[in-house]
Amino acid sequence: MKRLSLILVLLLAGCGQNNDHAWLGYAEGDYAFVSAPQAGWVTDVAVDRGAWVKQGDLLFTLDDTSQIAARDTAQAAIAQAEGQMGQAQASLELTRKELTRQQGLMRADATSKQAYDQAKSNYDTAAALVAEIVANESQARASLANAAYQLSQRDVISRTTGRVQDVYFRQGEYAPAMTPVISVLPPQNIYVRFFVPENEFAKIHLGDKVKISCDGCANNMVATVTFIASQEEFTPPVIFSITSRKQLVFKIEARAPGGLKLHPGQPVDVHPL
Predict the structure, then answer these.
(1) Burial class (CB in 10 A: 0-12, 13-18, 19+), 23
(2) Residues 6 or more apart from 106 whose CB is under 8 A from it?
(3) Distance CA 26, CA 267 (A)
(4) Rounded to whole angstroms, what are the CA distances from 154 to 36, 43, 59, 248?
(5) Is-contact 85 133, C-beta < 8 A?
(6) Burial 162-198 (b: 16+ CB within 10 A, else e)
């Protein structure tokens, strides 16, 4: 009788394990890698690892000596053009009056063709000078706008909200252009990656709901399957399972609106719903 009772207990335990079947996985995140848009020396890092940043917060600053010089040069060119314009317009007005006078004298046959041609040439030269100064000023203003933009890019701000995961360059280091200086993890970018054995692969489909559980996690975490690998692979080393580590598995990813309240690398159990 005792032997029969023991067999029944073992059978019930086995049934419980089957009902509690879960696929193993871990939390993962899509990081936002904030790069220096231009190469330069890092003069200041405004955040530390683990800091929470919002859109618009300053992350780091690059040396701006060259950009300030370009801005000042453009401003000086604009001032020079503005100073030249007054004299050039005055000269243009004088030559216009003289040309008008010579035109009247020509109609009255009171001047020579040479005098008229000289007045016309002087007017055309004065008009060309004004046009040249206008063009130079327009070019200088375009250079100023570009210099101001380049200068603004030396203060790199966050374009997203999240937690700073790492800082790759510190003050005094040279950051190449398009090289990440800081990584930020937006909370909505946290998802789970889990692995389904080959013999259970037919049970999972894109759009399926799965329940996620882990030690100390909330009991109501549900995500939607958004990715299924097209080829099987061997169970990755991060999944510590004696019974399944040698089996072929398919990599699956599941996400939830607003992200999952997990930490990247945190092991999880995934249950089909």
Answers:
(1) buried
(2) 113, 116
(3) 4
(4) 8, 10, 11, 49
(5) yes
(6) bbbbebebeeeeebeeeebbbbbbbebbbbbbbbbbe
How far is residue 271's CA from residue 2's CA, in Å, rounded to a whole number?
Answer: 35
- Distance between CA atoms of residues 192 and 84, nearest Å: 67
pLDDT digits (tens, 9 = 90+) for 144-176: 999 999 999 999 999 999 999 999 999 999 999
Tokens read off for 60:
């780091």
Quickly list H helices, the chain: 2-19, 65-107, 113-152
Residues 263 and 192 sit within 8 Å (Cβ to Cβ): no
C-alpha pair distances (Å), 34 with each of 165, 175, 219? 11, 12, 34
- The pTM for the full model equals 0.74
Q: Exposed, middle or buried, 110 (CB in 10 Å: 0-12/13-18/19+)?
A: exposed
> Kind of pairing, strands 209-213 and 248-255?
unpaired
List, in order of start, the domains of the chain with CATH numbers.
22-30+187-272 (2.40.30.170), 32-63+154-185 (2.40.50.100), 65-152 (1.10.287.470)
Q: Of 5-9, 220-224, 250-254, where does mean pLDDT reach its minimum? A: 5-9
Which residue type is seen at 177? A
Q: How many CA atoms lie within 13 A of 229 on its CB side?
A: 17
Residue bearing the bigger pLDDT, 128 or 247: 128
Amino acid at 244: S
